[in-house]
Amino acid sequence: MNFGTESELAAVSRRSFLKSAAATGAMAGGLDLLAETPGKYTGILIPAGAHPAVRSAAEMLAAKAGLKSDAIRNYTGAAKSRKSFIVLALKDTKGVPAELAEPIKRDGYAVQAANGGLVVCGARPRSLLFAAGETHHWLDRGDGPEAWTRNPEFAMRFASHHGEHSVAELVSILGATSFIAQLHASVSLKDEMPEVYTKLTAAAQQKLAAGEAEDTAKNATLVKEFHDADVEVFADLPYGNNFSRWSEDLYAAFLAVYPAAKGVPAEHSWEKAALCPSDPATWKLIEAYVREYARQSQADGVACTFWDQFGIFCHDERCQKNGLDQFKNELQAAITHYYAAVEPLGKKLHLRTWSSGCPHWLGNEYVHAPGYSNFSESHYELWSRVITDTPKEILIQTKVYHSDCEPNPRFTTLLGKCKPHPEIVEYQMVGQTIGRHYFPAATVNYTAWTMKKALELVGADGGAEISPGGTNQSNYNIYADILNSVDICAWRELTWDVSASVDRIFAEWAAQNYSAQAAPHMAKAMQLSEEAANLTWSPLGHGSATNSDFAGDIDRRETLLRYTNRYYLPEYAKTLEPTKENVALIVAEKEKCLAGIEAMFAELEAAKPGLTQAQADETATRFDWFREFAICNVALDMSLWRYRWLRAQAAMLTTDPEQLRPLAEAFDTVTAHAPKIFHYDPAQKFACYDVPLGQLRVKPNLGSPVRLMHEIHTKSLQFMEASVGPDYLPKEWIRAEVQMNVPTESPRRGL
Ligand SMILES: [Zn+2]
For the purposes of burial, counting CB atoms within 10 Å of the CB of 142, is it exposed (0-12), middle (13-18) or buried (19 or more)? Predict the structure, then answer.
């Protein structure tokens, strides 16, 4: 190995993937297979002068096979199989037979076993990294005339960069072609807009100049790591398009020179108007910033987003007159100018189309969240001008979710409609709405059916994207997660074989993580977790909080019910009607949810004799976290539907005394179980964290169910009391500090 280059030194400071994989098995990709066949391969041969990605692939294979790095040797001349050697080659390497090279499509690879050795042939250098990441598919092949070919379904496979692992490792695990990375830049506009630069304070000027040198050096190192892995990288522009957030200093300096470019916001709007899109100076500034940012990043392209920080929703006279007070025109203008900034630099532009949640009030501000149909415009309508009126080479990425990223959401309505732009389907695998990956919660089934549909819509020249992680978690590494890494495995398998069976994905994942005795049970437990998580966070198909936490009050909880955007579909709207039938429906669903979690526990118990102590401890703790959370959430959802029923009854001047007892029982359940959520021993260590639980920078936490339960209970009682008076409510079902106040909207009592 060539220790000593900058990127390798940087890699040393990272958590060693191979080491952690050996310890935990998570995402090891065939480690066990190799361990079972010691000595089968004694060396790895690579072409002399090979691309760094080929060498990285050889190093990974060597580490997995327990070989020392001196077992990697160069060969010159023709690639041919040799007993006990793994020979790496590219399609154009001399000696590669046509029957091996020809079936390879795009950046796929093929493997041939002969003479007691293997020849692995890649379309290009990164193809061999892909092969190294999934040795379980090919390493145990016996000699035979047939080559085994592996071609990806999607031409483009995007992933977000994860700094804990080397790029080569990420490429091998994910089978990805392109990455989106946080590449920081200190944009000063010194050369681009000197009139603005001179308005900066001397301190700000110095800070930006110093930052530029440092950022440029750092970015060069990281970008080289991507290119050495034979993949491209896009720099993530600062979130949203609110320039006042991109740079406070530059924003103030700019307005000092161009005061007329300041936008006029709409009243009560969550979407802001830092700049006016009708003012030419606005676009001069934005193009200058994006150009300087793109240059400093040194990336192959720039990736942009617009929500949640939208900053050109301007309602001055100019914008009202020319239509630039409308999102679809603002988006088209912004994309056009971004493209004008990056295209002359030879860089690509990548656009994420998502907007957030569904239209709703947040405090006294209205979140427009356009693009989710019904009251707001359709997803296509919102992006229609970008699709038709911007250069067709701009990549358009759309979330597979027709909502933010709710559990089991509807399928997007935009995918397949953005041609002639290349389209990419996005998977935000951060566990955001299913417990942020604290709990066991698979999404494999969902990924399987949606990936198939997405491929039909975007076509094989299109792409799939993954951003793996754990929302709001600290110290967390999903690649080392012995439970939810199954979601990454599934994404990788399906982007390469959209027909891969869900059962096989679970089985292969489990085999890489657990002993042969435990694996089938862990596979089954995780398979059960998908429906259990959906039912925990998506009552009757409706939504929950974007970050999985308990809603603070009824008002917020009812807003969140709309987040899956199903509430206006007739079949779902029906389940929101305040009826006794719907109370029965939600009760049945929640019982099913808890039964599913108990079934997970039964599988875990069956797996335990085959688990290591650390695996048993971690899974027991995380399963328990899930159960305690779900018990509380289920009690809240059932109570909410009862409350809605009682509220409707009160509007009809009557009530339903039968609800009193189950509401009290739910109250007792929440009171008893709330303190048990996220119990742990501070010394315990999970595979997915780099420190023991007691040292996590962000403590595991999803809020408390108590406040919402109190409000539901209290208000439900008030509705009843308004009808029957205080004397007829049995005291044994009245909890805690409930005040028997007559609600103001109740009918007047007496004559
Ligand atoms: Zn304006």
Answer: exposed
Q: How far is the CA of 413 from the centre of ligand 1 (A)?
A: 30
Strand partners, 500: none
Task: Give me the residue label for tokens 């049945």.
Answer: 588
CA-CA-CA-CA torsion sign (75, 37, 126, 222): negative
Average pLDDT in the chain: 91
For ligand 1, the distance from its centroid to the CA atom of residue 322, given in whole angstroms, is: 9
Q: What is the pLDDT of residues 589-600, one digit of tens each?
A: 999 999 999 999
* pLDDT for residue 19: 42
Q: Supply the DSSP symbol for 476.
A: B
Ramachandran sector of residue 374 (left: φ over 0; alpha: ψ -120 to 50; beta: rest): left
Question: In angstroms, what is the span from residue 323 Cα to ligand 1's centroid?
Answer: 9
- Give pLDDT tens digits for 392-402: 999 999 999 98
Q: What is the Å distance from ligand 1's center to 389 Cα?
A: 21
What's the whole-number mean pLDDT along residues 643-660?
96
User: What's the pLDDT at 38?
Assistant: 53
Q: Which residues contact 181 (CB under 8 A, 6 or more apart)?
A: 160, 161, 222, 226, 233, 234, 235, 236, 299
| Separation of CA 320 and ligand 1 centre (Å) | 7
Q: Cα of 576 to ligand 1 centre, how many Å?
A: 40
* Long-range contacts of 111-114, Cβ-Cβ distance < 8 Å, separation of 24 or more: 111/138, 111/141, 111/147, 111/148, 111/150, 112/81, 112/147, 112/148, 113/81, 113/141, 113/142, 113/143, 113/144, 114/81, 114/143
- The encoded tokens of residue 704 equal 């408390």
Closest CA to 636 of 552, 532, 731: 552
Whether residue 225 is predicted with pLDDT greater than 60 in this model: the reply is yes
At 188, the pLDDT band (50, 70, 90 cuts) reads very high
Q: How far is the CA of 369 from the centre of ligand 1 (A)?
A: 20
Q: How far apart are CA 428 and CA 159, in angstroms?
A: 10
Ligand 1 centroid to Cα of residue 278, in Å, is 5
| CA 264 – ligand 1 centroid, Å | 6
Residue 23 has pLDDT above 60, yes or no: no
- Give the CA radius of gyration of the chain: 28
CA angle at 308 for the pair 291 and 443, rounded to the nearest 5°: 110
Distance CA 171, CA 162 (A): 11
pLDDT for res 17: 42
* 167 CA distance to ligand 1 middle (Å): 43
pLDDT in tens, 295-332: 999 999 999 999 889 999 999 999 999 999 999 999 99
- Encoding tokens for residue 635? 């009690």
**Percent with pLDDT over 90 in the chain:** 83
Residue 364 CB neighbours (<10 A): 7
Are 386 and 336 contacting, i.e. CB atoms less than 8 angstroms apart?
no
More confident residue, 483 or 750: 483
| Residue 221 confidence (pLDDT) | 97
Burial (Cβ within 10 Å: 0-12, 13-18, ≥19) of residue 332 = buried
Task: Say how many Å lie between the CA of residue 345 and the centre of ligand 1.
Answer: 29
pTM of the model: 0.93
Ligand 1 centre distance from Cα of residue 242 (Å)? 14
Instruction: State whether the Cα torsion 82-86-92-96 is positive or negative.
Output: positive
More confident: 353 or 8: 353
Q: How confident is the model at residue 34 (pLDDT cuts 50, 70, 90)?
A: very low
Q: Please name the helix (run of DSSP H) or strand (run of DSSP E) that holds residue 233, with its range, or none.
A: strand 232-236
Q: Compute the distance between CA of residue 103 and CA of residue 112 in angstroms, rounded to an integer.
A: 12
**Ligand 1 center–CA 259 separation, angstroms:** 12
Task: Compute the C-alpha angle 34/179/130, nearest 5°.
Answer: 25
